[in-house]
Structures are given as C-alpha cells and as structure tokens.
C-alpha cells in the first residue's frame, strides 16, 4: 500500500475497526487471509463427506432430515467463505483447482472415518464444538467480510453441536451396547478434535502476525484449553468419559490439565497420510466431474436470462 494507505490500515487495526475489500491493505495481510479463508472454505466442503456417509443409513426419518439439513449448511458455509476470499481478489476457479489437485489444505479432522452412527454424534459434539470455540472469536476478525460470514456460520454451528450432543445423550442412555458405541466414538474423535486448533503456539508460524493483525484473537493453545474446560462438564452430563488419563482440574491455574497430544499423528495427517486423505480428495474430484452438467446448465440459464434482459 501507499504510505497513507499503510497508516490508515494501522490506524484501523489499532482502533479495533474493520478492513473492507476496497481499503488498502498490506500484501501479507491479504495473502494470509486468502490462505486462512480458503482453507476454512475447503474444510467445510470436504467436511460434508464424513457425515454424508450416514445420510442413507440414519436410524430414523427424523434423524435423516436433520443430518441432510446439517450437511447442506456446511455447503452453504463453504460458499460464503469462498465469496469472502473472492473479495480479496482470489479466484474461485484457482481455489477449486488447488483443492481438486490435492494441493490445498483443509482441516485435519475430516481425514478420519465414520464407521458407526455414533460418530455422527461425536462429530456434532466435538468437531462442531471445537469449530465454535475457534470461530466465535473470528466474528471479531479485522477483515469485515470474514467476520460477518462467521456470525451466521456460528449460529448454525451451535445448532449442529446441540444435535450431536443429543445423539450421544440418546445413545448414552440407551442399551449397554448403544452406550458403548457412543463411548467408542468419543474415544476416536477426542484427540483429533483437540488438534483442530492447530499446532502448539511454539510451532505455529502464522500466529504472531495473525494476532498482530487481529485476525486471530486468541492463540491455538488458549482456544484448545478453553475447549477442554468446556468439554469436561458436558462429558459428565452425557455420562461419557474423555479418553485422557492425565485430565484433571488444576485449582492453581483454574483450568483442566490435559495430556500431551500425539503431534506426529497431526503431522502425518497434514502430510496426506491420514486414514481418509486420498479418499476425500478423490470423492471431491468425482463430485466435481459428475456435477459439471449442473454448472453448465446454470451458466446457460444465466446467459439466456441476461440476453432476455438486453432485449
Ligand atoms: N488441519 C489442517 N491444517 C492445519 C490445522 C488443522 N487442524 N491446524 C493448522 N494447520 C496448518 C495451517 O493451516 C498452517 O498451514 P499453512 O501455513 O501451510 O497455511 C500450518 O498448519 C501452521 O499452523 P498455524 O501457523 O497455527 O496456522 P494458523 O495461524 O492459520 O492457525 C487455524 C490454524 C487455527 C486452523 C486457523 O487457520 C483458523 O482459525 N482457521 C479458521 C477455522 C477453520 O479453518 N476451521 C476449519 C475446521 S472447522 C469446520 O470446518 C467445521
């Protein structure tokens, strides 16, 4: 930006204001936002798959209707977020191609499988719970279109979390076999959901700048702690156990202590070696190819409409 552009950017950030698409902004700020927002959008789109896996097998019509609505919400979140990235000059075509080529990042959590119905409960409770913890502060992110998109997304995520909690509660209070199913799903999703917050602060290369720019308001470890503190009483209400022998209240800190996570697993998932990385990208590619006729039809319809308006 020009010198005056830079100083007005600095003033807005210092005063906790909002940067809007037409404002001048440093290149690094723009790039980092495109990075984070596009990764976030890809996460929503890939995130449809683990749950989509259970739409045909949901245990009742009621559960099926809820699950379909939830998966559609995720598609909507992805679309808002791609639009927010476009306001920064990113092209949707480039973002799509990066995802289809397997070059784009999306959240590690969506590379884990959903072998049982209880996994749908665990995703709602833990994955959407972690998403809310991480995303509520993003409603105050310094970039206007991103912050505004987050407000609606967070409202929908809260509903998602409650539906997951309710699935687990029903299973937990069901037969011993159902209770066991719920516990096993929580055992599978607990640690991966804690990893959604990103690497420990000391290994988080983007945090310092993102916090100075007020994109992030809290560090990865701060939000992870907040999440664990929130989960403990909820797990008690569910009658389920969090699978961490080191989890205990620390009166001095006023927080729960918890065990070290297996960061080698996190790194392997980011490097493409998670259980479902290959499957997720292949499925997205197939959906893109099979959906080509829909995009073509929409373009033809838009062209016809535009031609009619010109007459
Ligand atoms: N899964 C995949 N990649 C991750 C994860 C994760 N759980 N956590 C961190 N990373 C990546 C970062 O994207 C970054 O990669 P890059 O430098 O190649 O872009 C690298 O690991 C280092 O991490 P950080 O420096 O800590 O990155 P950052 O400051 O961006 O923090 C975070 C990561 C917390 C995920 C942040 O980007 C964020 O808040 N994003 C918005 C929320 C989001 O994307 N949620 C998606 C899941 S929720 C849902 O979709 C329902």
Automatic annotation (TrEMBL):
<keyword id="KW-0560">Oxidoreductase</keyword>
<dbReference type="GO" id="GO:0097266">
    <property type="term" value="F:phenylacetyl-CoA 1,2-epoxidase activity"/>
</dbReference>
<dbReference type="InterPro" id="IPR011881">
    <property type="entry name" value="PaaA"/>
</dbReference>
<dbReference type="InterPro" id="IPR052703">
    <property type="entry name" value="Aromatic_CoA_ox/epox"/>
</dbReference>
<dbReference type="Pfam" id="PF05138">
    <property type="entry name" value="PaaA_PaaC"/>
</dbReference>
<dbReference type="InterPro" id="IPR012347">
    <property type="entry name" value="Ferritin-like"/>
</dbReference>
<dbReference type="InterPro" id="IPR007814">
    <property type="entry name" value="PaaA_PaaC"/>
</dbReference>
<dbReference type="GO" id="GO:0010124">
    <property type="term" value="P:phenylacetate catabolic process"/>
</dbReference>
<dbReference type="InterPro" id="IPR009078">
    <property type="entry name" value="Ferritin-like_SF"/>
</dbReference>
<dbReference type="GO" id="GO:0005829">
    <property type="term" value="C:cytosol"/>
</dbReference>
<protein>
    <submittedName>
        <fullName>1,2-phenylacetyl-CoA epoxidase subunit A</fullName>
        <ecNumber>1.14.13.149</ecNumber>
    </submittedName>
</protein>
